[in-house]
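Backbone shapes recur. Consider a single case.
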Amino acid sequence: MGKNYVDIENDQGELLRYRKHVNGRGLIATGAKVHPDARVEAGAYVEPGARISAGARIASGAWIDANALIGPKAMIDAGAHIGPGAMIGANAHIGVRTSVGEGARVAAGSLIGDDITIRQGEAVATDRKGFLLAA
């Protein structure tokens, strides 16, 4: 049987160890916390300090950066990037190739479409159809 981890060198030359998540085989860095009920698809990365809550789904090619928080039953689509320290609320849906900037906040239940950029520190709330709500 093959090993259940992989070592990858980051941009600073540090060697990081990632284990394969039992539910989906995505790569989880040492120091990240992923609930066993979450699904992290193969080809997705979860960086150190990130937290993925119960029922969340991280699609293939998604990247959850350091110290990001993904709420319960949130969905992160393929190719999306959740920046360092960003927070995605419960039941939120982040679209394909969408980028959520460092420290940004997406409210619970929000629907963020495909190819959207949420700027660093921005707070966004939408209804379930993706229409922006007043802050």
Notes: The chain has a mean pLDDT of 93. Residues 5-124 form a domain with the UDP N-Acetylglucosamine Acyltransferase; domain 1 fold (CATH 2.160.10.10).
